[in-house]
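Input.
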Amino acid sequence: DRLHEQIWHTLPTYVPGRLEQTAVRVQHYGYLGAVRDAKEKSLRNVELLRQQAADCAPTPFLHFNLGSEYAAAADPASAVTELHAAREMLIRDGALRTAEYAPTLFTRLVMTLRLCGRLSEAKTIAAEGLTLFEDLTDLVLAQGRIAQALDDDETAVSLYRRAAEMGDAPSKYGAMVGGGTFLPRLAMAELRLERGDAAAARSELAWCVENHPEFLAVAAPYATAMLRDGVAPTEVLAELERLDSLPPIVRMTIAVALRRAGATRDAADQYRLVLAAGADNVHARIELAELLLSGGEWDAAAEQAALVPADDPYAALATRIALCGLIGRAEPATVAAALDRARHARVPAAELDVFEAWAAIAAGGEVPDGLSAAGAPLLSVLLETLLRGRDAERFEALLPALERSRLEPRERHETLAELYLNQGLLARAAQEWMAASQPQPDARSLFGLARVAERHGMAQDAANFAIGALELDPGCRPAQELLDRVSPARVPVGVA
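Output.
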């Protein structure tokens, strides 16, 4: 055939003793994700298979191969069509149980149906496959994923447990490695994490690390589970080093888990290890620069951002980081060079206006009037970054640029209120929401004041503000949720 050339049909299977299972194993890397992407292998394979379909009568194996390639190319709808056609032809030929690729066909058909949201059909096909191949663990694992997608957590856990008890399916099925060992345990752990049970998730993932240290996809969820279960970041990292040599991509996922847990310095160290590994990983460099910026390490952040090539897709983001670190601190010539790089990187005009205005303020110029509303999101990010980095001087210098922008007064007050609340400046946040409520309070401003009161620990005041917001807007769900938190026994507004 044009693809997946076969010799099976020429082997003397009719002569006993002529065939034997060999101990030789071939490791074929041609279908690893990175290799497929580099060769655009899926597109090539689909084209070859289409040519074959035009040259001769279709076969179940041809439809199976086409479906597999569409699945690999992230086109599950087309994959379902082809895999269904293969199944129907095998049924017609009476070969559904005997075709050597039939177990894989069922597994891929169930997976693609689930990805298409056709959960009921996926459930039916999985059950059909298990009547034919009762020890095909992959289908039990797939049933668990279907149950989880249907929000039936109890059934999902039961099926994941069954898959783990079955173990990996026999090799004759071409089954997934880990389908009956680490994959169902990872699925259970991720479900537990979603439901807030970090201890149970940690237990499942610890088994994976102990028994399959080569399974590196466990690293990020294991780090998350340990951190949420109260393990110190240094202990988390020590535990993860038990895994096989951690490649850069895995360290990147660990860094994300550490960052989400607030362990920014440990996350930064992981990014540094990625960069020290050799190839210049621009994504890691950008992540490191952002972490340094959020911690107020202005010079180090600008230094990392400056190392991103001018023609890189991340260049615009890199110049934003560099300018945030430099303006108001570096020499005017250095700032001017950074602004030139931002223009070359095609930073949007509204954002360039913000940086140029800030540079002018830092050089002693007047605060400009009328910065466009399109630049307000960037202004807000810059102000919050300066607050988080404890740079009060530059924050106070830049603040008038937002106050004198074209953003509506109401929006300016709410922007600042959210910013102050995020940084724990509750009195300032309250002042901004009170200003936003003039001349007439509305649900948004009252809900904002309720949030401030809740953060202050003033439950009664928080409840009163939330009730006020709900009276003005009964559909304000966040206000109702806040009211439930501070007064759980209270009847919802409008329900009595």
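The radius of gyration is 29 Å.
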